Amino acid sequence: MSSQFPFGFTPGGGGDRGGGGSPFGGAAPFFAELEKLLSWQGGPVNWELARQVAARTVGDDDPRISRADAEAVVAALRVADLWLDPVTRLPAGGAVAEAWSRQRWIEATLPVWQTLCDPVAGRVVEAMRAGLSGGLAKLGGEGGLPPEVTAALPPGLDLGKLMAAGGPIVEMMNRVGGMLFGAQVGQAIGTLAREVLSSTEIGLPLAPAGTAALLPANVAAFGTGLGVAADEVRIYLALREAAASRLFAHVPWLRSHLLGAVEEYARGISIDPDALGQVMRMVDPSMLTDPDRLAAAIGEDVFSAANSPEQQAALARLEVALALVEGWIDHVTDNAATGHLPAAARLREMVRRRRAEGGPAEQTFATLVGLSLRPRRLREAAALWEALTEARGADGRDSVWDHPDLLPSADDLTNPANYVRGGGGATGFDPIAEIEKLREAGQESPKETGKHGDGGKDSDAGSA
């Protein structure tokens, strides 16, 4: 990366406010802060700015986690594990139970958001750079820049070098693009932190491995007006969190399968240059040091619709995968809660309605990666898991998670009875028979199972 930086900025110099190392320190705090923001070199998203915007979005409305809060969450998750044991063959994940504030949720989940958002952000920054290059090309035409523009340039200035990869203009566009996306990401994450109930509510493993967490302030807000005891609400949500923890802990390929599906979709996303240009025209320099104004100026319309067959296929795979995870959690939680929690059915419906009305998952993905989820498939997925349980028992149901090739397809969600009978997927495909084959293969010696070795390596590599 080039050490030169246009307009007097020097990478890494923004943190000096005393005036010794920065031309703007002390006397001009606005420019010192601007220099600090533009010196970001950590990738296509300015994650430091994203963190600041998220924290500001939460603001002071973030109650401190008391000892009583922490003890209540730990107790609820302990009860949840006891109730889940009889209804799933997946054992307790051994996760550490934690009560999180909203700020803690932001800090703990940022690494996964970075994995999800950086591929899209890279495309946004590239679109900005291409738009600037195209604008200069149109301005100059075939004969180069107009004479009056050329005359106004400093002697010896080579626009070709400035616009080249690694050149000062490109460096500046990278920084500005990182700021724009960082502000958008930060606002979305901060908004989600005010609503999300647990570390796994949006269907993705956002928390560090081996952690199960509830957000007491948000859990209390969710329970307000339901007419259900606070302890009952807490335990029901703890059941969902504990079920998700078991799933991600004991299905080693699932984490990479989900995150990989999001990344696959993101790689093919397209940017609307007109919408992006409108955003760029709305941004003035003063916004660059005011994250709230900057985030407010940026809309969600820069992503073009997923029109290509590849994009549609990637979107369908992601929707099905998330629906299967959410549907399994929904079904297992309901089985565990029935007979223990009088309001279990009502709480289940409230959670489903929360998702169907465009809850945190749908809104956040639409903002961050131009992806609108379709939570209506949650009910279909829950019905499929219920049908599998009735036909094969809890062990047969959970055996479907033994390998990604066994997962139901979008067609199977529409016709779960066909999948349960063994007619899902390819013609003649029997998921239960395939499960038995995998079990038999696992009991053979490594030498005898050489033909299965590559598949196992691929699966392990995918979960690394």
Word description of this protein:
Mean pLDDT is 75; it is low at 1-28, 139-143 and 445-464. The two termini are 29 Å apart. The longest helix is centred in the first third of the chain and has 39 residues, at 102-140. The protein folds into two domains: 38-149 and 162-369, no CATH class; 377-463, no CATH class. The chain is built from 20 helices and two strands. The protein is mostly helical. It has a two-stranded parallel sheet.
The figure for the number of domains is: 2
Number of strands: 2
What count of helical segments does DSSP give?
20
The first-to-last residue Cα distance is: 29 Å
Spatially, the strands of the biggest sheet line up as 1-2
Instruction: Give the overall pLDDT as a whole number.
Output: 75
Condensed summary:
The protein has 464 residues and is mainly α. The protein is built from 20 helices and two strands.
List the main descriptive attributes of the protein structure presented here.
globular; 20 helices; 464 residues; disordered N terminus; 2 domains; 2 strands; single chain; disordered C terminus; mainly alpha; two-stranded parallel ribbon
Helix and strand arrangement:
Blueprint: H1 29-38, H2 47-58, H3 67-84, E1 96-99, H4 102-140, H5 147-152, H6 159-163, H7 168-193, E2 211-214, H8 216-223, H9 230-250, H10 254-267, H11 273-282, H12 291-297, H13 309-337, H14 344-356, H15 360-369, H16 377-398, H17 410-414, H18 416-420, H19 431-443, H20 450-463
Helix pairs in contact: 2-4, 2-7, 3-9, 4-7, 4-10, 7-12, 7-15, 8-9, 9-13, 10-13, 13-16
